[in-house]
Specification:
330 residues; mainly alpha; Na+/H+ antiporter like fold; 79% helix; disordered C terminus; arsenite transmembrane transporter activity; Arsenical-R_Acr3; transmembrane; Na+/solute_symporter_sf
Length: 330
């Protein structure tokens, strides 16, 4: 993990604070409205360019892990998100929708880094990435309409338009970039140039989008700053409950060490960039929903970093026979 990856949450926090300062101190913040969606579209295209469907063959090698990850991500987690929202944010509909959007979208990028840090099964974790991407693309509108209730206040057509704009369009462009680069430049060129570019621009573009969002919505943030703190208990509870539940499920299934780590990371990490894109496109007149989504990674990334070190330390202290079994499974 590079030092830039280690400091992702710091960069996002600095971008948010800088945008807030610009938005409150100058009239330039209003221009952020025209930056957010383009920055997110290019960023998501770069994320999707790095997907490799050939890893799907690994899914067949871990059917138990795949099955329990799907149940946790698409049944247990949405219900938990709904319960946390109703229980802790019942009087804050915009924050509740922001929380729901964040928690029902499994991560499709940085969880791979933390899986590797914790010595998890990288092959299976990578294979689950396109599976989770397709499922969240199909199910996100369903979750918002069913679990958002009256707080969502958005019709299915608007939500589907947002999904097409922020997910389907970047995915299609990324697929074409992969195909064209391999067809005319070769796979080696694609790996050395296109993939390298895609990997390098994701974090700067995310920070640009966060900066523009906070500059644009600085008055909203300043007015509702205290309310946004109400998100913290719900987020902390989620990031405590999911690792415990996934670890318990892995033990019941007697999954080997690397698979247990992969399951924990793939069910704990969330997809805040995609959720942010959907929020901006589907709820343009309710900026607090999108602003709330920026709080997510500020909590999530440090927790994932700590979690990966706890899991790694625990595996190191495991009995010799157990450690050997985990290593041989890789």
């Amino acid at each position: 993990m590079t030092w830039i990856e280690r400091l992702q949450s710091v960069f996002v926090a600095v971008a948010a604070l800088a945008g807030l300062g610009v938005g409150l101190a100058t009239p330039l913040g209003a221009s952020g409205e025209f930056v957010v969606i383009p920055a997110l579209l290019v960023m998501l295209t770069a994320v999707f360019v790095q997907l490799d469907a050939s890893n799907l063959k690994e899914v067949g090698n871990a059917k138990g892990l795949v099955a329990v990850s799907l149940v946790l991500n698409y049944v247990f987690t949405p219900l938990l998100a709904w319960a946390l929202g109703i229980g802790l944010l019942g009087e804050q509909p915009d924050l509740r929708i922001g929380l729901l959007l964040l928690l029902v979208t499994p991560c499709t990028d940085w969880y791979l880094v933390f899986t590797a840090m914790a010595r998890g099964h990288a092959g299976i974790a990578t294979a689950l990435l396109p599976v989770n991407l397709v499922l969240q693309l199909l199910l996100l509108p369903v979750y918002v309409m069913l679990l958002g209730g009256e707080a969502a206040m958005v019709d299915a057509g608007t939500l589907m338009e947002a999904v097409v704009l922020m997910l389907v369009a970047p995915l299609a462009v990324a697929f074409m970039l992969r195909w064209v680069s391999a067809r005319f430049k070769g796979r080696r060129w694609r790996e050395q140039h296109l993939m390298r570019w895609a990997n390098r621009v994701v974090m700067p573009l995310l920070c640009l989008a966060v900066f523009a969002m906070f500059a644009w919505q600085a008055p909203v943030v300043a007015e509702n700053g205290a309310e946004m703190l109400l998100l913290l208990p719900a987020l902390l509870l989620f990031f405590v409950i999911l690792p415990l539940v996934s670890t318990g499920a892995a033990r019941l299934l007697h999954l080997p060490g690397p698979q247990r780590v992969a399951l924990t990371m793939v069910t704990t990490a969330r997809n805040s960039p995609i959720a942010l894109g959907i929020a901006v496109a589907a709820f343009p007149d309710r900026p607090l929903i999108a602003v709330a989504l920026v709080v997510g990674p500020l909590i999530e990334l440090p927790i994932l970093a700590v979690l990966s070190q706890i899991i790694r330390h625990r595996d190191k202290s495991a009995p010799a026979g157990q450690a050997a079994a985990s290593t041989s499974d890789r």
